[in-house]
Amino acid sequence: QAQLVASGGGLVQPGGSLRLSCTASGSSLDSYAVAWFRQAPGKERDRVSCISRWRTTDYADSVKGRFTISRDNAKNTVYLQMNSLKDEDTAVYYCARLLGGCQGSVTGSWGQGTQVTVSS
Q1: pLDDT > 80? residue 2
Q2: What is the rounded CA–CA span in Å between residue 120 and residue 79?
Q3: What mean pLDDT, rounded, does the chain reach?
Q4: CB-CB contact of 97 with 34 (8 Å)
Q5: Quick one: CA dihedral 65, 32, 88, 83, positive or negative?
Q6: What is the rounded CA–CA span in Å between residue 79 and residue 23?
Q7: Strands 18-25 and 3-7: what pairing?
Q8: 86-116 as b/e: b if 16+ CB within 10 A
């Protein structure tokens, strides 16, 4: 079963940028929609963005205009470019495959997340 690994997190000042990467071992991502989620301490896991296999995208209102999701099927990787970061973007970020497109449900395990901390 595919294991997804999110990477690229770190500590950044407000207004800064980070690019997260989501890779899969043991399986190809190109036939799936892939979504990014985040979970802040004491809060539920929320969906941030999704990209379908046809590269249609959607974003949570809180990140529209600041985050951009993309995919490189040749590298079996989905990216999340995060600009103009705010304190409230601090969370552990996870990626997951969706069955049935961006309107579908998460399939497989969540895998390892990556910590994003926005702080001055």
Answers
A1: no
A2: 25
A3: 94
A4: yes
A5: negative
A6: 9
A7: antiparallel
A8: eeebbbbbbbbbbeeebeeeeebeebebbeb
How many CB atoms are located within 10 Å of the residue 2 CB?
17
Both tokens of 62, joined, read: 């809180």
Q: Are 102 and 56 in contact (CB under 8 A)?
A: yes
Instruction: Determine the pLDDT at residue 1.
Output: 63
Distance of CA 94 to the CA centre of its chain: 6
Return d(Cα 22, Cα 5) in angstroms, integer. 6
Residue whose token pair is 């079963």: 1
Give residue-wise pLDDT tens across range 70-110: 999 999 999 999 999 999 999 999 999 999 999 999 988 87
Q: Which amino acid is at 99?
A: L
CB distance 68 to 81 below 8 Å: yes
pLDDT at 25: 81
pLDDT digits (tens, 9 = 90+) for 49-63: 999 999 999 999 999
